[in-house]
């Protein structure tokens, strides 16, 4: 019985405290800012170019390997079996070496993306902190973490404008 009374008291106290809360709350769509800010567009373009370069290199590699395979297959009946085996081994070694290079470049691209997101996030946090202090906002949520909220609590456009004014480009060391 004592536990029930205590639980009721805590529940009433908790909800009473929430109803009297005067915190100013807002939410922000960080992905929208990443995709639409000047610095975010620059980062996205840079990542896209690096991906396209890597894809082009992979296509060139695949075409070269296919040509070499076709040539080797066409020479199968002409070459000595040991010579043929030796050529197959060379081709396999070349494939493994190139796959290793491509894998390394792909890892570098992933690292670049992570660094870019980290730098963007640092800059974004500075802007959000400055905005929350100057507008007396106590809590700011990410839009994707909210089920439903009034649209007037959305500060995305304000943050985007402030971000574009203060940060035009983000340099990412490679």
Radius of gyration: 29 Å
Q: Give the overall shape.
A: elongated
State the fourth-level CATH superfamily.
Skp domain
Mean pLDDT value: 85
Oligomer: single chain
User: Biggest sheet: strands side by side, in what order?
Assistant: 1-2
Please report the first level of CATH classification, the CATH class: Alpha Beta
Largest sheet: 2 strands, parallel
Reading the helices and strands in chain order gives HEHHHEH
Helix content: over 70%
Tell me the number of strands.
2
Helix count equals 5
Whole-number total of structural domains: 1
CATH architecture: 2-Layer Sandwich
Summing up helix and strand content along with how strands pair, one would put the structural category as: mainly alpha
What would you say this structure looks like, in words?
- With 174 residues, this protein is mainly alpha-helical.
- It has one domain: 2-Layer Sandwich (Protein Binding, DinI Protein, Chain A).
- 73% of the residues lie in helices and 5% in strands.
- The longest helix is centred in the middle third of the chain and has 54 residues.
- The model has no long low-confidence stretch (mean pLDDT 85).
Give a short overview.
The chain has five helices and two strands. It has helices spanning 2-19, 30-36, 38-74, 81-134, 156-166, and strands at residues 25-28, 139-142.
